[in-house]
Every structure is written in structure tokens, then in C-alpha cells.
Amino acid sequence: MQKSDLSLFLELSNIPTTSFYEDLVSDFIKLKLREYEVEYIEDKWGNIEVFLNGETDKEIVYISHMDHPGFEITDKISKNLFKAKTLGGLPKLCDSENSKVKIINQNKKIKGNLIINNEESNSNKFRFTNSDRWLNKEFVMIELDDDNINYPCPVVFDLPTPKVHKDEIITPVADDLAGCSLILETLNILKNTKTNYSIRAIFSRAEEVGLLGARLIAKSKRISKESIIVSIETSSELPGAVSGSGPIIRTGDRASTFDNSGEIILLSSVKELLKEEKNFKFQRQLMNLGGCEATAFSAFGYKVTGISLPLINWHNANQDGSVEPERISITDYQNALNIMTKVGNLDIVENKDYYKSLIEIPDEAQRLEIRRNNA
């Protein structure tokens, strides 16, 4: 089985990112692809796409997103006080607890903290009004230790650098840089392998503010409708989807259930892995707290499925709504990598083969035939 040394994810997850400001993550991914000598394209929206030719035109598309919830400074209120727009779901207590933040994409490090803003109203379209989980303010106030900034500019939580503790990786950003890292490692492993499936990889933008990058790609129709879209994500722990118990074969999200023809490919990969290691850990669950890019493609008629890592402190929110680093299990990460790479060794999975034991009716079923007495 494949075993990552985790260095790629530890490096990648230390890079600050938020919606519309994924440049540093994008640059890192492109640098790694060049190091791996894997060709890529960058579309007009800034999404990155890679294609590995297989022995057939049957295609698996792994997709993850390069952004994470954060803020965008939009206006200056006074000397060191700025107004910022929220980007995605953020911990509900982050402003009332004066959470520490930092500006990214600047030549110098500028730090500050959120402060309570009771005057700003939400627009009618704000997603998190009256939310019991996320900050229900469209705008926040940020006090910086330097007023010499160019805006608009991105702001993220100022959290400790990633570290490994026992079976966990504790990091500022697991969602969804864990998915990006898994796809990068998969590409590097499969790049010189003869695979039956063709493998496409997409690193998308602005997922946290409405799946924007994925929706644009799906609408463009540049991906064949015969392809299987596999969302590689993290998603909040749920009963039956517990961190450390294995990656989740995701049967759906908050918006929709996924496609069986995609799921049986992932389950076939798991079946092969169980032959190698009978205690291989995985889970199967409907992860209905959040949406993911599979749904964006499903809306445009694609066949979709997903792999998800159970996430602790989803969007940096602990159970009380305070800001903390995100946490994922190393076991879950390693096993997800094995599922993804093992797909490259599979024969093409056909429904008739996967369900062979059900399709072939045993002789014993003849006992069910009703025998009627002739009148």
C-alpha cells in the first residue's frame, strides 16, 4: 500500500488561502506539477486541470478546491479600522472573541483582530443569516496593527503552523487543502503507471462562496458527461463518520445523493485493498452537513461520487463556535490515498460484474415458485 510521509500536506496546509485569493496555493500546486513533470492547463477562471491518459477513454475526475473561508477587506473606516466582507461559513463567535487574523498576499506581515460590529446589516441574499453554527454577519470590523495596506485584500485567521500529534494533523487549513494534497500525491504515483481508467484532476476556485469554479467548469461542458466526477473533500464529523475510522465513501451531501455507478468504482478499489489488508479502514456515509463540488456537477447532469475525510473543527469552528485549527486523522488521509491510487490499478468496473452475485439467480430460488393445483 502507498504511504505518504505527509510532508506535502504539511507544507501546503500552511499556505493561507480564501475564496478569490487562492494565488499562493495555486502557485504551489503548479510548482509541484512541474516538479513531477506532469503537464497542466489553467483555464480562464484560474482552475487548474491535469489529464493522465489511460488505456481506455473511461475517465475518473478527481476534484478538490483551493480556497477556505476567510474575509476580504473592502473599506477603511478610520486609521487602523477596516470593514471586511465574510467569505464562506465562519465560526459564529469569531468576532465576539476578538479572533486574531492576518493579511495574506502582502510583502510584509500585517496582523490584527476582529472586533464586534453590531451596526452592519446583512443583504437579503446572505447565506448565513440566523445561522446557529456560522457567523451571521455579512461584514465584520478588523483592527490592524498597520494602516498602510492596499485593499481590497484577503484576511485569514492567524493560527499556529501545522503539526503532527499522534494520529492527527492539526492545521490552519484542512478544508480543502487535504483534498488538493491527496490529488497531487495520486498524480505523482500514477503519472508513469498504465491505468485502464484515464485520470483527470481539477483544482478549483471559490468553492466556499457557492461552488463557483466547479459550476463554471460543469456549465462549460468541457468534461465528458460519461466521466465519473469524484469530489475529494473534508467534511464535519457525524455519527457513523468518525475521524480515525477511515475515509468516507460519500453517498451524498446536503443538497443531493450521488451516483451508484461512481460509488461502485471506489468500493471496488476498497475491495482490492481489503484483500491486501483485512483491517483496512473505510466508512460509507451520507455527509449532509455541507455541500461539495460533486453536487455542482450533478446539477449539470454528471455522474458523481466522493471521498471525504472526517473533519474536526470544520471551518476552524469548535463545538462552541470558537476559532481553532482544523484536525484530520493520518489514518484517514493515508487510506484515502490508497483508495484513489488503487483506482489506477482496477479493471474497468461494470455494473454487471459488480452485481454478478445478485444478477445470477441460484437454483434454490425455484423453491419460491407457486405451484397451483389444477381444478
Radius of gyration: 23 Å
CATH level-1 class of the largest domain: Alpha Beta
Structural class by sheet pairing and helices: alpha+beta
Helix count, DSSP H or I runs of 4 or more residues: 9
- Provide the CATH superfamily of the largest domain: Zn peptidases
Residues in helix, %: 10-25%
Tell me the CATH architecture of the largest domain: 3-Layer(aba) Sandwich
Assign an overall shape. Answer: globular
Low-pLDDT stretches: none
Strand order of the largest sheet: 1-2-12-3-13-16-14-15
**Terminal CA distance:** 66 Å
Order of helices and strands: HHEEEEEEEEEEEHEHEEHEHEEHHH
Number of strands: 17
Major sheet details: 8 strands, mixed
CATH topology title of the largest domain: Aminopeptidase
Describe this protein's structure.
The protein has 375 residues and is of the alpha+beta class. The chain is built from 9 helices and 17 strands. An 8-stranded mixed beta sheet has the order 1-2-12-3-13-16-14-15, with helices on both faces. Strands 4-5-8-7-6-9 form a 6-stranded antiparallel barrel. Strands 10-11-17 form a 3-stranded antiparallel beta sheet. A hairpin with a 5-residue loop joins strand 1 and strand 2. The protein is globular and about 95 Å long.
Could you write a compact summary of the structure shown?
The chain has 375 residues and is α+β, with helices and mostly antiparallel strands. It folds into two domains: 7-68 and 161-354, 3-Layer(aba) Sandwich (Aminopeptidase), CATH 3.40.630; 70-157, Thrombin, subunit H (Beta Barrel), CATH 2.40.10.
